[in-house]
Design brief:
Length: 254
């Protein structure tokens, strides 16, 4: 099993990676500072194949950081997206005050709306909904809301219900994003701001570190992949990979 999972690690040209999220500038700066300090990428990014391209599932801030440092050949773990091994969840936002957004109805209603087909704001057993007509409108309106939320005090959570809210709290619940949506958005160049989707990957490989000088070197991508294969063989022969019950794989090279 470990051998099969290790074989998912590939060196990929960043030009062939499609994204469905915009990077977070603050997080990018922190990652760049860390990369410059350590000269090491600690974990591969997560992608899935889409014909002759790859769709990024996790790591847009690291991808952006690496590109800004001149790294064009990116270590990635290539997973099969449409299996139970990859789970996709949506973040909701709980704000510590009443929030109002353009285009939403001005009044709250006691009638509950399903978030599917629109974006839902709820307070204690009161609701209002912005109807969404297509994916482009969903991305535009979601990004406007996220920009406004960023100026408030909030927490992110899954499976938020109005009855769980306390006095003066507001929750913003977005329609469920499914895997087909991620592929469609990536293919069409539509990008959410960071903080909407969350991918959970079983058997994710961690602590497989890459020297930035190696990644930025003039070696071809094929040559870098060849060196990577040597590392994989060493890891397997010296039993340097260990699978945990939490379904992650960590690398401890000597």
């Amino acid at each position: 099993m470990i051998h099969k999972t290790l074989n998912e690690i590939k060196i990929i040209d960043c030009k062939g990676i499609l994204i469905h999220e915009n990077p977070d500038p603050k997080r990018v700066k922190k990652i760049v500072d860390s990369l410059v300090k350590t000269n090491t990428l600690n974990d591969p990014l997560i992608v899935t194949r889409l014909k002759d391209k790859f769709v990024l599932l996790d790591g847009v801030n690291r991808l952006t950081s690496l590109q800004s440092l001149g790294v064009n050949h990116i270590p990635c773990q290539v997973v099969d997206y449409f299996t139970d091994r990859v789970e996709l969840a949506n973040w909701s936002y709980i704000c510590d005050a009443e929030v109002n957004f353009d285009r939403f109805p001005t009044r709250l209603s006691k009638h509950y709306f399903e978030p599917n087909g629109g974006i839902l704001i709820c307070q204690k057993n009161l609701y209002k909904k912005l109807q969404i007509n297509d994916k482009k409108e969903l991305v535009v309106e979601t990004n406007k809301i996220l920009e406004k939320i960023a100026k408030t005090t909030y927490v992110r959570a899954f499976n938020v219900h109005a009855e769980d809210l306390i006095e003066n709290q507001s929750a913003i619940i977005f329609p469920q994003i499914i895997k087909e949506d991620v592929i469609e958005l990536s293919s069409n160049g539509l990008k959410f701001n960071a903080g909407i989707t969350r991918h959970v990957i079983q058997d994710r490989i961690l602590n497989f570190c890459f020297d930035l000088n190696f990644l930025k070197s003039n070696f071809s991508m094929a040559e870098k992949q060849k060196e990577l294969e040597k590392r994989k063989q060493k890891i397997l022969s010296q039993e340097e990979a260990r699978k945990y019950a939490e379904t992650v794989i960590t690398i401890t090279e000597t």
